Amino acid sequence: MCSVGNQEGVELKKGSSSSKELKLRESLSSHIEGTSSSKHKLYGSSRSRRKNLPLIGTRDSVTEDESRNDIASRLSSILEDSSTSKTRQRRKAVNIKNHAIAPPPPPSILSCFVKGKGLKEAIEKASEYEICLFLPCLCLAIEATPIWHRNSQDSALSALEKRVAQSPRIAQSMVLILYSGSVKNPETFKNVSSALENSKRLGFLKWDAFPLNQFVHKQNRRKVKKGYILEAEHRVFHPFQPNVVIAKSHVETVFKTNSKPVLLSVLAEGKSRRPPIKIIMKQGDDFRQDVACMLVFRLFNHIWRESGIKHGNVPVRCHEYYTVATGINVGAIEYVENCIPLAEIQKMGSFSSDKIERLISTGAGSYIAAFLLGVRDRHDENIMIRQDGTMFHIDFGRAFGDAVLMDASSFAITKGFRDAIGVENYNSHFVGCCLKAFRTLRQPKNVDLLRGMVPTMFSAIHNADKIVNFLERTLMLKKDLESATMKFKKKIESAPDSYRTRFKNTMHKLAQATKGADN
């Protein structure tokens, strides 16, 4: 059952004159609240046993996912206030007079500082791991600090300069941010750049480009094949695990796509409690957008976790994975085994009740997050399912409505997904979780948070007004809460039968088959 803590039910207007309208609203209410009196009916289809197929994805460790969520929770509190002043000005430029929701209340103090002052404290007190993981977010927040809080910006930059000078791991992460153009105005970080030059003189950094980028350079494609080994000439840290020093990188696979991404296994210096995370290096996409999407996904997860939305015992969330921009249109992606694309969901056989709960919760979070950010090109090989039932999206090259010529529906939910969890589970539990998550994000305090933070995450790539206007459309802010919820419900219910989604997936399969025949 999909439940939420401290969440209002559907608001039904009193004295409705239309019995048809009342019946529709009662139906809507039952979808959101779930059916508490009956046991879950979790039916999986009986299909052949699945094959373990290694594909792009994220780690299996539940404890690490929870650890990341804790970090995101603290950081979102810190960044909310740093974006507050800029949010007020941006709101003036956007016409919100016709919004059916109440105007957002004055921002509350979510951490130990006021406005931008908490950035300095966050940078000083955070661990190396936290800084490296959220450095793009911190840099963009520093950049977004209004000019009338110049002292706060300067103090945050000074704190960052000290951390860069003290830690070669943080220095490497900062170099990658500057190399990849992940900040809008590099001049803001000129003193930090000076600290990086000093790190090079001290021997912390001796390379002028991230060494692993060599695997995907066009001039190296002929020699980079399975079994190719690159030994580290200088000290290089793992892009996702800054405590790991890379000794060697070994090519496991060169994928047969146009950009020729490469799967690397990494040998670490010294002893390690577990093997380092495998890396996919890829060239040709703007990885700044992938990084920004992951940051926003962490924000969505923080909001949903605070609201207590769950299906059974599994919180609703959009699963995130590591991705780092390591240069201009080149980046590193986290890899996990035992995942299959949504196109092959039948190979997983019948699902246990635990897996169905996780598939419903993560599926709801993933589809809603992708819809709100306008992520397109959602064929059924850009949506993955992990062995434990966790669903997540990959490839965020097209966002905010930037659709390809023949694209799927904005909710690219397939009949295969609906059949896997069962039609009854889809129409009640999955739809209910989606509606709860949508309504939570539409709460005035959360709308205010999204208006302030999401444009900041994408500020190096997209205009702020474009992001705000798009979010207002996908959140349907010009409609009242009930009307927006009803429209959203219809979209999700009809999604598996979408002709556009079926056509997109069919054309993608034909294109892949043609490429396979040519190879």
From TrEMBL:
InterPro entries: Kinase-like_dom_sf, PI3/4_kinase, PI3/4_kinase_cat_dom, PI3/4_kinase_cat_sf. Coiled coil: none annotated. Residues 1-68, 80-101 are annotated as: Disordered. Residues 38-52 have a biased composition (Basic residues). GO terms for biological process: phosphatidylinositol phosphate biosynthetic process; phosphatidylinositol-mediated signaling. The keyword Kinase applies. One of its GO terms (cellular component) is cytoplasm. Pfam families: PI3_PI4_kinase. Residues 10-28 have a biased composition (Basic and acidic residues). GO terms for molecular function: phosphatidylinositol kinase activity. Keywords: Kinase, Transferase. Residues 248-500 form the PI3K/PI4K catalytic domain. PANTHER family: PHOSPHATIDYLINOSITOL KINASE. This is PI3K/PI4K catalytic domain-containing protein.
